[in-house]
Amino acid sequence: MSSASLKSPLSACQEEKGSTWDVTEDYASNASSKNWLVRKLLTWGVEERGIAPVPLSERVDRPYSKVFFIWFSMNVNILSFSAGTLGPAIFGLGLRDACLTILFFNLLCCAVPAYVGTWGPTLGMRQIVISRYSFGYYGVIVPCALNLITMIGFSILNSIVGGQALASVSSNDLSWTVGIVVVALISLLVSFCGISVLNWYERIAWIPVVITFVIALGVGGKHLSNPPPLEPATASTILSFASTLAGFAVTYSGLSCDFSSYFKPNVSRWKIFLSAYLGFLLPLIFFQCLGAAVAVAVPSVPDWEAGYAGGNVGGLLEAMLHPVGGFGKFLTVLLSLSVAANIAATFYSISINLQVLIPTLLSVPRYIFSIVATAIVVPLAIVGAHRFYDALVNFLGLIGYWASAYVGIIITEHLIFRKNDASLYNKHAWNTPGRLPPGIAAIAAGVGCFGLVIPSMEQVWFTGPIAKTTGDIGFEIAFVMSVVLYLPLRWLEIRWRGFV
């Protein structure tokens, strides 16, 4: 194909009908065609929109605090605390080494989902829909399925720790199963209503949780002041723990734009980035370091050790609050409900991803899939409740690999091939397979990078030959190799197709 026959991305976009993009005429809700129940839900403020891009008329959000509180409340919970306990409990790190690893790797990893989220206001699209411009209409089903597995996995883990904490206040009169169901139903209610209720809930959900952890730190802080000395950490151990932390933070990139697509297109991208970055960074560093400190102290505090038996993080927190009596049980209930802020937002994104996974479901209202997500998560959480730590370590260790490759591909597409310019996205093509990239380059790069990732993995069930020397560097390798492979493959794909 001659170079003269190739269309530039900009000229391809200029051929679209008009330079201002508004999809209202194609995807606006037709209230008269809906049954009375749907119409009533809409009048109550329930959000129906799924993966259809947000028209300009509805992109009116302005306060940057909305972005901050979404991510802040999602991470102010027991699961963030649990992730920090892994450093001493699983990887044998001392408090100093665990906290330094938490600090420096979160400073790096939290920047990724915060940056990706800045695309939402300029494009008005959900995160997984934006991924179609790299992976194609059909190819995006692969990262979409992996993203769904990741979100369902996080929801299961959050349901388990929330259920454990709720059950721990009842002196075993309330089972973990009932606690899991209660937490999941609260999350369903918020996610069912949609983005407006979600933003309101996330703005206040963190307050009782922070107060509770401050009280727990106040009554139990005396046990944290003199941590026992441990053997110096090795580079291999630190990298393995860091890979787990990366799996916690970077995987949010698969839903970053789901919560920023209603913002005005002209908002400051730097302010959006900083709001999201601080929303991730502040709770993750504080709660993970607190978790590491408590895990180090557990063997020296009999009550904590008894509550922590079998990896029961909820029981551990209840034991920490035990000195304040009945009020401590009330605070533990608040902690158990803290995970609802994370689960609700995750259910919201699951409902969007299901429409991409099965495109024929586009006409089904988004809120229906929140019910589907709950129906999937609850039984799996009940089954896995008594293997929490095994599930947490294995899950966080694995999901970081695909997420790293995914962000390497979509960031390369955005910065190199789309030149960080929203006008180079053919926005009318979001749901038309023939006008999107075929996705061959993205799939090939994502799969191909695992040729080097697998030897670099260190898991309970497998340690690659490279990882035996270096520790787990699969996360870093996945990012680098996906970029290296995607650049030439995508260039060839553009040459073949004739347009971006």
UniProtKB/TrEMBL annotation:
GO terms for molecular function: transmembrane transporter activity. Keywords: Membrane, Phosphoprotein, Transmembrane, Transmembrane helix, Transport. The keyword Membrane applies. It is found in: Membrane. It holds the Pfam family Transp_cyt_pur. Its main location: membrane. The chain crosses the membrane at residues 68-91, 103-123, 135-156, 176-197, 204-221, 233-255, 276-298, 330-354, 366-389, 395-416, 436-453, 473-492. GO terms for cellular component: plasma membrane. GO terms for biological process: nucleobase transport. Belongs to the purine-cytosine permease (2.A.39) family. This is NCS cytosine-purine permease. It comes from Hypholoma sublateritium (strain FD-334 SS-4).
